[in-house]
Amino acid sequence: MTTLATRPTGGAFDRRLLHRARGAAPYIGVCAALGLAQAACVIAGAWLIAGLIAGAFAGGEDLAALTPRLVALAAVLGARALLASVQEAAAHRAAAGIKAGLRRQALEHLMRTPSDGRSSGATAALLVRGLDALDDYFARYLPQLVLAALVPVAVVAVMLAAYPPAALIVLVTLPLIPLFGVLIGLYTRARAERQWDATAHLAHHFADLVAGLPTLKAFGRAAKQSGAIGATTGDYRRRSMSLLRVAFCSALVLELAASLSVAVVAVTVGVQLVDGGLAGAAGLQTALLVLILAPEAYLPLRNVGAHYHASAEGLAAAERVFAILAEPAERRGEPEPEPVATGAPAQQGSAATALTSVPAMRTTLDRAPTIMFRRTVFAYPGRGPLPERSLTIPAGRTTVLTAPSGAGKSTLMAALVGFRTPASGSIAFDDTDLSDLDLATVRRSIAWLPQRPVLVDGTVAENVSLAVPGPASDPAVARAIAAAHAPAANRRVAANGAGLSAGEAARVGLARLLLRADLLDPPVLLLDEPTAHLDTDTERAVLDALAPYRDGRTVLIASHRPAVRAIADREVDC
Ligand SMILES: Nc1ncnc2c1ncn2[C@@H]1O[C@H](COP(=O)(O)OP(=O)(O)OP(=O)(O)O)[C@@H](O)[C@H]1O
């Protein structure tokens, strides 16, 4: 068992779960109904046990007289066990549905949120392991919370009717349990927050380490990193053990408070029995009823305290998911239309030949736009803003950005597809501000080759097909691959492009751009260092393949290569 965090700032029950997680509200209803039935079983069971003992020992009743009550007691105990298992089943069912719902909402939201600064390792840990902790919350904590609200009230009411002094003692001592619980909770909160941070740090660190292992090995730093991971996990273990110690101590304190309170009730009732205040079979039955019921009044409250630590991890994770859901999403637009793969044969000839001259689908911008950056400034966290830029990318022409490394060329391109937002200034397509345009429409109108194309596990053909939202025909993919001089369609690619050279990966990226241009006919092409890793002959061939696609489109290329600069209609040293 690990305890990650106890930071349920939403209190014992986070109302956002009701709104965000379908299934939470009905489950609470089920919990309340089962809790009422369980409270009734507790009281009926205590009444029957007290009656049986008093009848057998003080009333002198024989087995025949006691049998109906014995059967009733068995039925009550059976009903209590059945209610507990129904509760367990309902809890797991509800938790599974609620976790799935929260994961789906979070993933959908993440897809529409700029990813700046988010650690993929920590996000994965949150959505998988973090949300799994909600099991304890729904299966253990919440049912006890409902019982804690119902059972003590019912028990005190029955005790009040049976023997008011005992009810008074319970009433006075009962608040001690939540009071101690709150004090312990306050004490552990800061520790628990640090614990979650340690978990997130560990997940982040580990993901980074795995990604960078080859480089670390090359620099002889792998062993040192194992030491760093050892130190982080050691720190995590120490924090976990310290939190567990607090959890065990808190259980002990709550147990002690409850036991002392029950002892006071027992002594009071015992004195009355000896003094004759509770005389005869009826007196013994009342005394036993009070003695059996008294611990039941404290039990749910103690259980709430005991399950608080385990369940708080789930609540803290849910809270972080709510924080993700509260982040402003990108402007929503229509989903990309699926391309209709033409399968039209490529015009034969050189690699410079167009894949197909007939676009299968029109995009929303019918003509190539003029793109303007007007006094645009970009800022990244932790560093000063990039210099202000004002530049115009003329419509239907090829512009090459030749600014020095680090000047912000990739940033400008990422901004055109909505992955970066200027801190000040504006971007316009023709005369319309980008912020007034539907982002999905803008993205549909652009084919973008990023500096480091993301490649996924699969074949080259599967990677190229990712360029369009729907299925692309095999001939169209094959033509794009051939024109870009990318590796064979059936060549395997591992995650992150492992198995391909940097130049081959760049050409798979270019094949994507050509496929998209072929099938979606976007009026804007953005290419970030398209030939950075290529030899001069391959570079020449790739630029020739691109030539037919530049015609009539607004093309922006970031590059310092002379061959690329040679094809430019305009060069900008922004
Ligand atoms: N995610 C980021 N967080 C912080 N700083 C960043 C981030 N991305 C880019 N930068 C910084 O912004 C500046 C511009 O980066 P950008 O990649 O746009 O430059 P570039 O002109 O494309 O460089 P290059 O020619 O080397 O590819 C750089 O100084 C870079 O360090």
Helix/strand layout:
Elements: H1 15-20, H2 24-57, H3 63-111, H4 120-132, H5 134-162, H6 164-173, H7 176-211, H8 213-218, H9 222-275, H10 280-326, E1 371-377, E2 389-393, E3 398-401, H11 409-416, E4 424-429, E5 432-433, H12 439-444, E6 446-449, E7 458-459, H13 460-465, H14 474-483, E8 492-493, H15 502-520, E9 524-528, H16 536-550, E10 554-558, H17 562-566, E11 570-572
Parallel strand pairs: 3-10, 3-11, 6-9, 9-10
Antiparallel strand pairs: 1-2, 1-4, 4-5, 7-8
Helix pairs in contact: 2-3, 2-5, 2-10, 3-4, 3-5, 3-10, 4-7, 4-10, 5-6, 5-10, 6-9, 7-9, 7-10, 9-10, 14-15
The protein binds adenosine-5'-triphosphate (ATP).
Structure description:
With about 575 residues, the chain is of the alpha/beta class. The protein folds into 2 domains: about 15-325, Up-down Bundle (ABC transporter transmembrane region fold), CATH 1.20.1560.10; about 370-570, P-loop containing nucleotide triphosphate hydrolases (Rossmann fold, 3-Layer(aba) Sandwich). Helices cover about 60% and strands about 10% of the residues. The protein is built from 17 helices and 11 strands. It has helices at about 15-20, 25-55, 65-110, 120-130, 135-160, 165-175, 175-210, 215-220, 220-275, 280-325, 410-415, 440-445, 460-465, 475-485, 500-520, 535-550, 560-565, and strands at about 370-375, 390-395, 400, 425-430, 430-435, 445-450, 460, 490-495, 525-530, 555-560, 570. The strands form 3 sheets. The protein has a 5-stranded parallel beta sheet. A 4-stranded antiparallel beta sheet has the order 2-1-4-5, with no helix packed on it. Strand 9, helix 16 and strand 10 form a beta-alpha-beta unit. Helix 2 (about 25-55) runs antiparallel to helix 10 (about 280-325) and helix 9 (about 220-275) packs antiparallel against helix 10 (about 280-325). The model is unreliable at about 1-10 and about 340-365 (pLDDT under 50). The structure holds adenosine-5'-triphosphate. Adenosine-5'-triphosphate binds near residues 383, 406, 409, 410 and 411.
